[in-house]
From TrEMBL:
The chain crosses the membrane at residues 35-54, 61-82, 102-123. It holds the Pfam family Phage_holin_4_2. Keywords: Membrane, Transmembrane, Transmembrane helix. It comes from the Bacteria. Signal peptide: none annotated. The lineage of its organism: Bacteria, Bacillati, Actinomycetota, Actinomycetes, Micrococcales. This is Phage holin family protein. PANTHER family: SLR0284 PROTEIN (PTHR37309:SF1). The keyword Transmembrane applies.
Amino acid sequence: MRFVIVSAITAVAVWIVTLLPLDVVVDGGETDTWTRIGVFLLIGAVITAANFLVKPVIDLLALPFKILTLGLFSLVVSWFMLWLSAWLTTLVPWAELTIGGFWITLLAALIISIITAILSAVVPGARRD
């Protein structure tokens, strides 16, 4: 159940970021409102699955760089997870997450992380126990 809640929270965060001028675009489902919501939920699920499955391994591999940069390398890891999610959505024919250049997408990944953290603290059932 936690995966579904975190996926919905991430979908809201991605939707907010697409409203900002940060070169993050979600393609698919433009014909119907419910289809568009489904596209955002799918992208939120892909990002959440990548964060649950791949991010612990990446965090472990990036630990020396995080220590050297006093934790700032975590932003690069967040960008990489967003890039990986964008690549994974290219495999789905009806929903695609498109990102821009490195620096602007790094800011988008930071904003997605902040919004997700805030909403996870507010929404019941989204926190880790």
